[in-house]
Amino acid sequence: MRTLLALLACLLVAAPALAQTGAVRIESPGIRVGDTWIFNKIDGWKRTLEEVSVNVVKQSDRDGIVMESSSLDGSSVAKILRSTAFNLVRVESPGFSQAAKPFYPNYSFPLYAGKTWKGRVVLSNSKQPGTEVTAELQGRAVGWEMVTVPAGTFFALKLSMEGTYFATGLDRGTIADTLWYAPEVRNAVRYEYIDFAGTSQRYNHEIHELVRFWPGR
Question: Do residues 20 and 142 make contact, with C-beta atoms less than 8 angstroms apart?
């Protein structure tokens, strides 16, 4: 179970673009083919760098968005499928596949400070056959903040996602994740994920911070 949730956390770092800098209301994502982001992944408990990932948009159309995520040296390549609103749907790699049905509800457009939404998602992973995690989540657009990461300081909209999960078997717990995304990079610049078993036993704690961005066409 810990493995499934940890994999999910790694794959939620990319976020949709804002309509324009300083926009109060975000009508739709603006992801483009060729958009490329480099992220540091940090162990939230030890505050140490675990890995660096490169995320590239390969397709963006009415059928959804396809991304390729790899290590900085080009290894460990994964294919990530997202909805047109950039919510995670499926991950495919040589070592595993993961599905989020219907999708992981990080975003609910249009977005604006103060908006709230709910979503139910069922997660499965080929590394844990026969096991599903069902999460009931509540999202909230908290407001605009200044946030500093290796790529610089950005004016970003803070989104909070909290809720409970239960799994096939006995596992139950809570999820709390927060991201900040900035219009000029069409992506989250910082993402923090924590999950708990029961009410207090912390399992995964990951932080992802933007290092560099290249715009697509």
Answer: no
CA-CA-CA-CA torsion sign (113, 118, 124, 127): positive
pTM more than 0.85? no
Q: What is the pLDDT of residue 25?
A: 80
CA distance 46 to 204: 12
